[in-house]
């Protein structure tokens, strides 16, 4: 709905047409509880008619201490069935004295009076009913019992009781009691039609009750496994990886090796070769190989020998090579040994490969054969006459003599010095095997482990997990501990499980309800949550914002007779006050029969507007000036539900024709009519003919005077100040924001603060004249603005009052003129009413001299452009169908009434509308033609003037000297007011000063004007007229 605007904004006159909402009241269907309804039975399924899927009676369970051969059944065969399609049956063994019960638990209320009844028959036993009141802990605090029945004849038993304090539940039991049996035939109890109701339950509200359902389901056995082969998690495959090697090259420093794991390592060493000289080669180093068992973490030190060097007196290769001879003929030093040690000491060597002998003089090669003569590991120094240095080894090699090549050092392995080639299962020694520097190699033991177990195992219907099993009913729970034996579950691929679920009956049955037709008024009073009550608006203003209230919340509780605690799928059931329908709403729309602005977008008339977000309650709109006034313009609001198959609001919005049960399902629609009206305001006084106020209204010419040194002459086309209201035509307090009274930016002279009406001497900007009121006989130039369809007619009726400055009394007066020695009335107070005789007053013309007054009235180029543009696009058609151009102000003497009543017409009206209000664009994207805005704001130009010979008398009093002097004296003034109406093609608007008439200050005394019902515009002198100013009357 459209939110109401303040009624004070509606300026339509009392006799103006009001369209408003034309929609008729609507009929809707409401489902509500009957005033008198069936009693609520608090024993759900007390007639044993409803069954679980498992076949058990719904909401009833059997209880017995010894269940052997006891059965809780439902009797369906005609023999012993009491009523309906089945009855309760309890069967126990003969003469067993078993106490067996069919039990139902329901809600109970402390202090409530209840009535119970039920039918029962007993075969060879005693049967009866019990009722227990239970507290919050489930403990029975009081029990009632019917008499014990001992006959197969079915009887009805009843109980009346009051639930004690602390009662929260009632437990009702059908009891099979002690045996009364002389046979061996089983004993039976049959029961049916159990009812538990409240006293006065036919008018009590519905109480939600819970019941239990037991469902037996079959499902796959989670423990069942089809026989299949799986990987053996304990299988260990065989490992057979060859040992890796680590090589050691010559570095000139010791190197280390640490055993990564325990095993037998293969060690190999190559001694370094002796040095070469000229054409003689050094002897080759020896190769030694053996094995050694190491523990993980054991460390060996590896010394790799260096090759001998050529030249005299050269040191031997690193690690024991002998030095070369000292003669200048030339020789080479011996090669160093390569060895493995357990420490850094030579005494810890356990494998040594001897180095080769150094070369002698030219042609005497070094020797690879072993001839160890030294006591230490260092080879013998070469002979003085250029002999080669001996090879390093376990013991150093012989130098070979003068000029000769030296011998290799000995090797060592397995605690044995070796001087020749050896190859056996323990070690290998080969002389002459290595040229260059020595080297060594360690081969790690191979990795090998045997296969453990089989790669796969066959699982035959078993979990291969340790488990402990707990059975609950027919279900299986497997609990797997950290350790334990494998669990072999049941071989069945499926298991049966009984599931208990509690349900609540929150709604009364259908026979509690009735469907009524109710009338929804077209103009209901709406309660806004948190915002009070109001009716839908009956009018909107042109060039004014408005709001639409379109909530998802509403008061759906209705009469309060629905009896439900939560929502349901049916209208009239489950709805509450202040309830939100957001979750069921897909879209909300608005459509207007006029152009609107919403969220910065201008939508032409009859455009469907989507309202987002949908969870909002209020939506802001703006009614642009470019619309026409309208009587009962159409508006439409509708919402579409999530389950709507289509937007079918207009045909079935309340399901009246869609479904037989008439329950609303899909959408909501609201159609409404609203009036579009304009405004009248910005009443402005621009000038008077009285020179006293000329310097107030117009810009002075400072070198020219009306009255020397008192009143300057003025430029009539240059406004200095003006009189007007302190609220503009849109009823906003004037400010720089409103551009004062220049609402649409086309009247620049109004873009300054107004001085409040009326024209009184105290506002004069010349101090010497602030006690001299306006003198009658001078014209007052005024205009007023309208918005809307006001193109051709206004009505202005002047009223005059006598204000006694001594007493403050206001008295209506009549105005006369002396014509041919006869006093004739020109304004009789209140004479111009419906049916009055215009000939009853003298026709003292009201005229507009546009040719001479246009500049004085500030008719500038912008206003002229707008006016002539509207004229060019607008035509009038008379009753005969003749087309004539729209008329605008023109010429010199346009008569539009007289001193009694004025009717300004097209020749008094100019156009001032634009699409900018207060400087803000109100035509986004130029969606409307600017002409629409130009035409919808008007300025009406008129003049108030009394003749300088006017005579004032108290209203209705004869023209006598005493009566005239009682008004026209120095202690009185004349107050001028006017009833101003704009007459449009749709409405008539009444103008009133927006802040009232207020008061006026004369000669330092303030007098209230609030009692005058018309708009006061000027204060005249009661004694003097323009005739007293004859000498200057023609100058202003």
UniProtKB/TrEMBL annotation:
Coiled coil: none annotated. The keyword Repeat does not apply. Gene3D superfamilies: Galactose-binding domain-like. InterPro entries: ALK/LTK-like_GRD. Its EC number is 2.7.10.1. The keyword Cell cycle does not apply. One of its GO terms (cellular component) is plasma membrane. It is a single-pass type I membrane protein. It comes from the Bacteria. Keywords: ATP-binding, Cell membrane, Disulfide bond, Glycoprotein, Kinase, Membrane, Nucleotide-binding, Receptor, Signal, Transferase, Transmembrane, Transmembrane helix, Tyrosine-protein kinase. It is found in: Cell membrane. Residues 262-444 form the ALK/LTK-like glycine-rich domain. Its main location: membrane. It is an enzyme of class 2 (transferase). Pfam families: ALK_LTK_GRD (PF12810). One of its GO terms (molecular function) is transmembrane receptor protein tyrosine kinase activity. This is receptor protein-tyrosine kinase. It comes from Vallitalea pronyensis.
């Amino acid at each position: 709905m459209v939110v109401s605007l303040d009624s004070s904004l509606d300026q339509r006159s009392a006799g103006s047409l009001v369209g408003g909402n034309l929609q008729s009241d609507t009929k809707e269907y409401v489902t509500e509880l009957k005033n008198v309804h069936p009693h609520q039975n608090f024993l759900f399924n007390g007639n044993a008619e409803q069954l679980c899927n498992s076949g058990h009676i719904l909401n009833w369970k059997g209880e017995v201490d010894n269940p052997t051969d006891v059965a809780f059944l439902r009797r369906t065969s005609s023999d012993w069935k009491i009523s309906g399609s089945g009855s309760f049956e309890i069967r126990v063994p003969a003469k067993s004295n078993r106490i067996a019960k069919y039990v139902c638990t329901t809600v109970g209320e402390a202090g409530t009076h209840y009535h119970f009844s039920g039918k029962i028959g007993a075969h060879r036993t005693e049967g009866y009913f019990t009722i227990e009141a239970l507290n919050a802990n489930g403990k029975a605090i009081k029990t009632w019992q019917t008499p014990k029945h001992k006959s197969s004849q079915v009887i009805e038993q009843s109980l009346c009781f009051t639930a004690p304090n602390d009662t929260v539940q009632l437990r009702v039991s059908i009891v099979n009691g002690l045996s009364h049996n002389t046979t061996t035939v089983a004993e039976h109890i049959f029961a049916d039609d159990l009812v538990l109701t409240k006293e006065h339950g036919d008018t009590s509200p519905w109480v939600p009750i819970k019941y239990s359902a037991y469902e037996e389901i079959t499902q796959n056995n989670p423990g069942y496994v089809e026989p299949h082969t799986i990987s053996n998690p304990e299988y260990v495959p065989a490992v057979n990886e060859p040992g890796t090697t680590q090589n050691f090259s010559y570095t000139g420093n010791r190197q280390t090796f640490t055993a990564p794991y325990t095993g037998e390592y293969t060690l190999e060493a190559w001694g370094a070769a002796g040095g070469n000289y000229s054409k003689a080669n050094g002897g080759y180093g020896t190769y030694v190989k053996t094995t050694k068992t190491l523990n993980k973490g054991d460390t060996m030190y590896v010394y790799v020998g260096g090759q001998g060097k050529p030249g005299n007196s050269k040191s031997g290769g690193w690690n024991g090579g002998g030095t070369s001879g000292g003669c200048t003929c030339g020789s080479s030093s011996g090669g160093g040994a390569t060895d493995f040690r357990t420490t850094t000491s030579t005494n810890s060597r356990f494998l040594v490969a001897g180095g080769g002998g150094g070369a002698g003089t030219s042609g005497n090669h070094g020797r690879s054969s072993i001839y160890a003569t030294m006591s230490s590991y260092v080879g013998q120094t070469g002979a003085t006459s250029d002999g080669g240095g001996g090879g390093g080894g376990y013991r150093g090699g012989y130098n070979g003599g003068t000029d000769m090549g030296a011998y290799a050092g000995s090797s060592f392995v397995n605690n044995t010095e070796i001087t020749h080639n050896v190859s056996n299962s323990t070690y290998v020694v080969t002389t002459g095997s290595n040229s260059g520097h020595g080297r060594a190699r360690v081969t790690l033991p191979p990795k090998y482990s045997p296969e453990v177990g089989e790669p796969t195992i066959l699982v035959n219907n078993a979990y291969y997990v340790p488990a402990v099993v707990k059975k609950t009913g027919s279900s299986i729970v497997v609990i797997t501990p950290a350790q334990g034996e494998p669990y072999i579950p049941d071989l069945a691929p499926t298991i049966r499980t009984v599931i208990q679920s509690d349900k609540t009956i929150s709604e009364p049955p259908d026979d509690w309800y009735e469907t009524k037709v109710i009338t929804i008024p077209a103009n209901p009073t709406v309660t806004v949550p948190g915002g009070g009550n109001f009716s839908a608006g009956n009018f909107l203003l042109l060039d004014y914002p408005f709001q639409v209230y379109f909530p998802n919340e509403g008061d759906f509780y209705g009469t309060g007779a629905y009896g439900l605690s939560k929502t349901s799928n049916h209208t009239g059931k489950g709805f509450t006050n202040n309830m939100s329908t957001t979750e069921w709403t897909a879209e909300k729309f608005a459509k207007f029969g006029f152009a609107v602005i919403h969220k910065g977008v201008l939508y032409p008339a009859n455009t469907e507007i989507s309202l987002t977000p949908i969870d909002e309650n209020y939506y802001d709109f703006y009614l642009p000036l470019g619309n026409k006034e309208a009587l009962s313009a159409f508006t439409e609001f509708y919402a579409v539900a999530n389950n709507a198959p289509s937007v079918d609001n207009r045909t079935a919005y309340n399901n009246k024709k869609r479904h037989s049960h008439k329950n609303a399902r899909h959408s909501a629609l609201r159609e409404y009519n609203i009036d579009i009206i304009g405004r009248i305001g910005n009443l402005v006084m621009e000038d008077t003919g009285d020179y006293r106020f000329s310097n107030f209204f117009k810009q002075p010419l400072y070198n020219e005077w009306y009255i020397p040194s008192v009143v300057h002459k003025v430029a009539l086309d240059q406004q200095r100040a003006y009189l007007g209201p302190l609220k503009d035509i849109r009823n906003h307090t004037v400010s720089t924001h409103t551009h004062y009274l220049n609402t649409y930016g086309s009247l620049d002279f109004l873009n300054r603060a107004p001085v409040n009406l009326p024209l009184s001497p105290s506002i004069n900007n010349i101090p010497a004249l602030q006690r001299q009121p306006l003198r009658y006989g001078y014209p007052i130039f005024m205009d007023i603005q309208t918005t809307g369809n006001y193109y051709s007619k206004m009505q202005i009726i002047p009223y005059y009052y006598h204000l006694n400055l001594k007493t403050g009394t206001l008295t209506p007066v009549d105005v006369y003129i002396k014509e041919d020695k006869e006093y004739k009335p020109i304004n009789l107070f209140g004479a111009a009413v419906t049916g009055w005789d215009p000939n009853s007053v003298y026709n003292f013309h009201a005229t507009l001299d546009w040719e001479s007054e246009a500049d004085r009235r500030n008719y500038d180029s912008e206003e002229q452009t707008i006016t002539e543009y509207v004229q060019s696009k607008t035509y009038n058609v008379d009753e005969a169908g003749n087309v004539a151009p729209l008329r605008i102000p023109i010429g010199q003497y346009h008569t539009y009434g007289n001193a009694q009543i004025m009717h300004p017409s097209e020749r008094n009206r100019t156009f001032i509308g634009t699409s900018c209000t207060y400087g803000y664009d109100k035509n986004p994207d130029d969606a409307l033609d600017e002409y629409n805005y130009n035409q919808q704001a008007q300025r009406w130009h008129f003049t108030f003037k009394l003749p300088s010979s006017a005579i004032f008398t108290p209203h209705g009093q004869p023209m006598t000297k005493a009566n005239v002097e009682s008004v026209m004296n120095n202690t009185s003034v004349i107050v001028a007011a006017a009833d101003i109406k704009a007459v449009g093609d749709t409405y008539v608007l009444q103008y009133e000063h927006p802040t009232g008439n207020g008061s006026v200050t004369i000669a330092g005394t303030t007098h209230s004007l609030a009692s005058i019902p018309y708009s006061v515009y000027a204060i005249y002198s009661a004694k003097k007229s323009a005739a007293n100013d004859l000498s200057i009357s023609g100058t202003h």
